Description:
By secondary structure, the protein is an alpha+beta fold. It contains 5 helices and 3 strands. Strands 1-3-2 form a 3-stranded antiparallel β-sheet. The radius of gyration is 30 Å and the shape is elongated.
Amino acid sequence: xxxxxxxxxLGRKTAHRNAMLANMACSLIxxxxxxTTVAKAKALKQFVEPMITKSKEDTTHNRRIxxxxxxxxxxxxxxxxxxxxxxxxxxGGYTRIIKLGNRLGDNADMAxxxxxxxNEIYNVDKQPKKKSTRRGRSKxxxxxxxxxxxxxxxxxxxxxxx
Length: 162
């Protein structure tokens, strides 16, 4: 039975796996995107997203927690200085995994993992979209109103002319 064996161990002992994920997270924060295998990308996503959430609130305690996992002072500073303000309004989902195909040497599934808000390709033309409705209505400013039949006044009600 496999009780309590939740995460992917990636064929490594615990210390090696933690060191590898810390190094990959540092590379991701520094370069904003890295290429790796799909399994490592999924493990890295679970490793790095809680730290990005911690970085949204800049306190000494949160910096120490993140530093204990990443172990690189410059990367922690960049995470709190550059990454956190850009993802401040996002409720989660800070990374995106894009599958790239298979590696030539050993046919391993490759993927690119990137920070969502730092992608220039997808975010260049992000303009706030105008709200549109699906029901039709007449636009008063663009098209002239339909011609209205002239109103004929009844002489019996008009007393000013007499």
